[in-house]
Amino acid sequence: MTTQTNKGKIKSTVYLTLTLLMLCNGSYAQETTKTTLEPSPFEELKGFSQTYYYSLGHEARAKDIAVFLQNAGSFFQKEIQFTPQVQLYILAPQHWKDVAAKPLHDVYGFPHNIDHTRLAIAAEDNDFWRSFLPPVDQLPPPVAAQVKTAYGKSDGSYSMMPFFDLLALHEMGHSYTSQAGLKMHRYWMGELFVNIMLHTYVAEKQPELLPALETFPNMVLEGGTAEYKFTSLEDFENLYPTLGMGPKNYGWYQSKLHSAAKDIYNAGGKSVLRNLWKALKEHQEEMTDEEFTAMLQMEVHQSVADVYLNWNKTD
User: Fold this and answer.
1) With b meaning 16 or more CB within 10 Å and e meaning fewer, what string describes 147-162?
2) Spatial separation of the C-alpha atoms in residues 13 and 35, rounded to whole Å
3) C-alpha distance from residue 143 to each of 134, 219, 305 (Å)
4) Could you give the count of Cα atoms lying within 13 Å of 68 in the half-sphere of its Cβ?
5) DSSP 161-202
6) What is the pTM of this model?
7) What mean pLDDT do residues 258-267 have?
8) Is residue 195 within 8 Å of residue 257, measured between CB atoms?
9) What's residue 26's pLDDT?
10) Which of 13, 188, 261, 280 has its CA at a distance of 20 to 30 angstroms from the CA of residue 79?
11) 4-314: which CATH architecture?
């Protein structure tokens, strides 16, 4: 059983990461760099359907990311018949400020959606990533085992790169919804949808990546809700635009929404993503909570409606 001390250590490593998800996603208004981007400091990676620029010396890294997103794009094209157009930058530290959204100029390493078209990814392992991993030998044994599976390297060290790279697909998901003109209706749905996209692709096509995707949310949720002032979806809707629930509290919300995406996929499979995409594309009218939930039940899947219906029952 996890002790309260260990729970606190675990949570402290993840709150900033999960908070930054909100500041960088495609549905939150951002102030982006005003500088006209010149691709001259970068090489362009050829042979892919999207545009990829990378800092010199990082071609292999760029190819790894491009292959992952290309495969995901092919999967989504078959499932939802849409592909956004994006420019993805794989950046060395000296190029980060030239491309990243202004709120993240000093946070090298966080993958984010800048303006619904441009995405920024770190080319190198970095202190920002390393700062979120506590000493593994101080974690409860079950959590330590998860961390070793998700982030362990053959030489006995650890890297958070597998987790942060997956967030690129989360952020690209916001380009899908914004460029396709989907109406999210609720802030919680905007975040839930891209988590469903991410979880569905990984589970269907690259299940070996599930440990990297799930370990952070698992660590947060196992700590319970006693210390959180806000836990309802109503609070989330009211406080989302200003992060008024606070960074720690927001981390709990993001973790629960990811866990919900996992449960939705496990209950309904990949067809839920197709049904939800179609419903959000078609229903542009305003809806009450009751109308929105009824639509999700009838046109998508009961498990999606249950996120709203059962939220407070499982706090």
Assistant:
1) bbebbbeeeeebebbb
2) 33
3) 11, 7, 31
4) 22
5) HHHHHHHHHHHHHHHHHHHHT----SHHHHHHHHHHHHHHHH
6) 0.83
7) 96
8) yes
9) 47
10) 188
11) Orthogonal Bundle (1.10)
Distance CA 133, CA 10 (A): 8
Residue type, 118: R
Residue 210, both tokens: 């599930």
Residue type, 255: S
Question: How confident is residue 315, by pLDDT bands cut at 50, 70 and 90?
Answer: low
Q: Is 90 left (phi over 0), alpha (psi -120 to 50) or beta?
A: beta
For residue range 12-45, what is the model confidence (pLDDT) as tens digits? 444 455 545 544 454 444 444 444 545 468 999 9
Residues in the chain: 315
Amino acid at residue number 196: I
Helices (H), 133-282: 141-151, 161-180, 187-205, 210-221, 233-239, 247-268, 271-282
Structural tokens at position 146: 């998860």
What is residue 46's DSSP assignment? P
Residue in 314, 149, 133, 112 with CA at minimum distance from that of residue 231: 314
CA dist., res. 110 & res. 17, Å (int): 8
3-class state of residue 152 by DSSP: strand
Answer yes or no: is pLDDT of 229 > 50.
yes
Q: What are 178-220's pLDDT values in tens digits?
A: 999 999 999 999 999 999 999 999 999 999 999 999 998 887 7
> 247: which residues sit within 8 A by CB, 6+ positions away?
15, 16, 19
The structural domains of the chain, with segments of one domain joined by +, span 4-314
Asked if 233 and 311 touch (Cβ cutoff 8 Å), the reply is yes
185: left (phi > 0), else alpha (psi -120 to 50), else beta?
Answer: left
